Amino acid sequence: MELRIRAAKLQDAFFIASLTLELGYQAAEEEIKVRLRKISADQDQHVFIAENDTIVGWMHIAITRPLESEPFAEIRGIVVKKEFRGKGIGTSLISTAEEWAKNKGCRKLRVRTNTKRKQTIDYYKKIGFVLQKTQEVFDKAI
């Protein structure tokens, strides 16, 4: 399988939305297009597509600039189509994230995952990520 990693285009919105369902989130194609336009205009964010003959994964990465610490890059979302998992696609996307982050001057790459995703947690540890903390996430509708 010949894998290509490239920047996302608006035409990819349907496939991105479809793969987003595999993460457990529902987003309409038009919503993805609106978000992609905003992300594309921001030098501190990028969406990458993994494809062979079709789109098999995507990753959203962004620079976070906290007041209390140095900036770092964070993978905000990453998914590989279920039937293509375990073939190195996620690892290729993460390698791309590392390069992108280094080119932006970041010295740290962060990724978060739900604690119920045990296989994902094991995978991140296997490829060199180190658990820093566990936390609760609170949302408030405004």
Explained architecture:
The chain is of the alpha+beta class. Helices cover 33% and strands 23% of the residues. A five-stranded mixed sheet has the order 1-2-3-4-5, with helices on both faces. Strand 3 and strand 4 (72-80) form a beta hairpin. Helix 1 packs across helix 2 (29-40). The model has no long low-confidence stretch (mean pLDDT 95).
Features:
five-stranded mixed beta sheet; Aminopeptidase; alpha+beta; about 140 residues; single chain; globular
Query: What gyration radius follows from the Cα positions, in whole Å?
Result: 15 Å
CATH superfamily: Gcn5-related N-acetyltransferase (GNAT)
Q: Would you state the CATH class?
A: Alpha Beta
CATH architecture: 3-Layer(aba) Sandwich
CATH topology: Aminopeptidase
Helix content: 25-40%
Total strands: the figure is: 5
What is the ordering of alpha helices and beta strands? EHHEEEHEH
Which structural class best describes the helix and strand composition?
Answer: alpha+beta
Q: Judging from the principal axes of the Cα atoms, what is the shape? A: globular
Can you tell me the residue ranges where pLDDT is under 50 for at least 5 consecutive residues? none
**Tally of distinct domains:** 1
**How many H/I helical runs?**
4
